Amino acid sequence: MGHDEPVSRSLQRAALQGAAAMSARLANNRFDAPAFWRRSNRSVSCDWKELDMVLEMTRTQVGCLVSLAAVAIWSSGCNRAALRLPGASLAFPETPTYYRAKAHHPYTVVVLAPVDRRPEHYGERIAGTRWKGCCTDALWGGDASALIQKRLVSELEASALFSSVATTLTRPDDLVMRTEIHAFCSQVVGVVFLRVAGITALKVSLEQNGKVLFDHKFEKVVTDADKEYSGSQVTFIEQAMKVTMADSLRELIKEMLSQLDVEAATWSRAAANQSPEPTAPRAGARNPLARVYR
After folding, report:
1. pTM for this prediction
2. Mean pLDDT on 240-246
3. Bridge partners (DSSP) listed for residue 125
4. Mapped to the 3 state alphabet, what secondary structure does 65-125 carry?
5. What's the CA gap between 169 and 175, in Å, rounded?
6. More confident call, 163 vs 190
């Protein structure tokens, strides 16, 4: 076994050298548990931070989307009249004022067809309220000018304010009523609970022989929550729009008639003051129309 001893020793020496080399390698790359956990904690912390950032961004995006959706709903809710069902209403309602003039004035009033200037006044606040002139109404292409002219004629006739009412000029001394439509529409606002408003604004003037006797702008807003509203609280959107428009027009015409009643009295007095008074014949003056008999 003598010749095997050097081999055995060489093997042991090689094994020891390999173990020493492995130990040195492990020493150089030793596993540091605290450092590993610190790195792991940092990694986990970074992961949580990244996750929290992602969630925060997601929440922000969702919040923005919700806000945009709310704005979109509210903007559509600012005037949801376009959501009405076409034809889900009755005819434009008759809403008489029942106004009776305090005095009768000997004039013929010619009510000309109103001039529709609504597009020029979109967005203007009406009657000191938050409601504005708009392009939505419940007429579905109907002639607003003809409708308003018809209501003006019928209310002037029923009030007995003037001797007669016409739509065409017959005599030079007739009073001529000119009307501009600045607003005649309806708005519907709200998301769950809707509020409907009828909006009317008219500029009315009367002139005689080119002289302006009356020139005023009248504005009125009636909502389905006002006492002037004559419709039902349970109805279709289009029907509520028609009723509020008719009610606002009725209240506006009533105010116009009242103002006309007051100012027309001054016209009569002014005309009476301008008319020459008859003079008595002088004593001894001969009447040229008298016949002389001899």
Report:
1. 0.65
2. 94
3. 132
4. HHHHHHHHHHHHHHCHHHHCCCCCCCCCCCCCCCCCCCCCEEEEEEECCCEECHHHHCCCE
5. 9
6. 163
